UniProtKB/TrEMBL annotation:
Residues 33-53, 82-107, 267-289 are annotated as: Disordered. Residues 278-289 have a biased composition (Pro residues). The lineage of its organism: Bacteria, Pseudomonadati, Myxococcota, Polyangia, Polyangiales. This is Uncharacterized protein. It comes from the Bacteria. It comes from Sorangium cellulosum.
């Protein structure tokens, strides 16, 4: 006979939650309202076990305690799994922020180089004149800061970029962009600007994630204690002098017995650990090292 005083040492939360579900199904099978007739869909009961209107009180109370503890343990595990998934998503979001920032910086550098090249041209009588390119450069990259705005904190950088993007939408700026072949530079800058705004939550909502629950020891301890108490109460219910008590105990304990056997088989199949090497005694004085 197995011991119910000490639960299997390799018991894990999945075992406890699965055992709760198995026992719940058996309890549902054995309970039947007074006067209720058996239905074809009802689970068959073993010989010697008749349906009950309710569990004996000394089993019902620990069962409800175990059911509640296992449910709380399962809830903690679900919450932790969800939070861990959120963390992985947040890590991906941080990577996207970094990539969006780099992309934006690179596009602004490329645009600045194009604008500087156009502004350095000499006046050849064509339109737009290079002076217009110099006007645009002064609007976007005024001395002494120039491109320094892309090195600022995200909020400061965003405000500076928004102001410059509005300038680029003006008719005068568009004439410079089209006249000096900067359309491709501008198009890529628009895309990088939109990516930056989304990644940092300036153009959409980015919710902060709650911290991951990490300590499930209280739930695990409560579930184990409740299971131990329940098994003991069910075992103690079996009495040869009370008809049906042994059948009920065996019926309810069957999933636990099966679980204990499964864990024992797993332990037997596990490879044996090699014994630790015993250090050699130190050499005696004058002996070989």
């Amino acid at each position: 006979m197995f011991s119910t005083m000490v639960l299997p040492p390799d018991l894990v939360a999945d075992d406890v939650i699965g055992l709760r579900d198995q026992m719940s199904a058996r309890i549902a099978a054995v309970l039947r309202p007074r006067g209720g007739k058996r239905k074809e869909a009802d689970a068959p009961l073993p010989k010697g076990l008749d349906p009950l209107a309710a569990l004996p009180p000394h089993i019902d109370k620990p069962w409800k305690r175990f059911d509640a503890a296992a449910t709380e343990l399962q809830g903690f595990r679900d919450l932790r799994a969800s939070a861990q998934a959120d963390q992985r998503h947040s890590a991906a979001s941080e990577e996207e922020r970094s990539a969006a920032n780099t992309d934006s910086d690179d596009r602004w550098r490329a645009f600045e180089q194009w604008n500087a090249g156009a502004a350095a041209l000499s006046d050849d009588g064509q339109t737009p004149a290079p002076s217009e390119a110099r006007w645009l450069y002064a609007q976007l990259f005024p001395a002494p800061d120039g491109l320094r705005f892309i090195t600022r904190r995200p909020r400061v950088q965003w405000a500076a970029m928004v102001q410059r993007m509005k300038t680029l939408e003006e008719e005068r700026a568009q004439a410079v962009i089209e006249g000096f072949g900067g359309t491709r530079h501008h198009r890529q800058l628009i895309a990088a600007h939109a990516r930056f705004g989304e990644a940092y939550g300036f153009t959409n909502v980015v919710l902060a994630k709650e911290g991951t629950p990490t300590d499930g020891r209280p739930q695990w301890s409560a579930a184990r204690d409740a299971l131990r108490s329940l098994i003991q109460k069910i075992e103690s219910h079996a009495d040869p002098e009370i008809p049906g008590s042994e059948a009920l105990a065996a019926f309810l304990l069957a999933p636990y017995v099966e679980m204990v056997d499964d864990l024992a088989r797993t332990r037997r199949r596990a490879p044996a650990r090699k014994p630790e090497a015993v250090p050699a005694p130190p050499p005696e004085a004058g002996g070989m090292p």
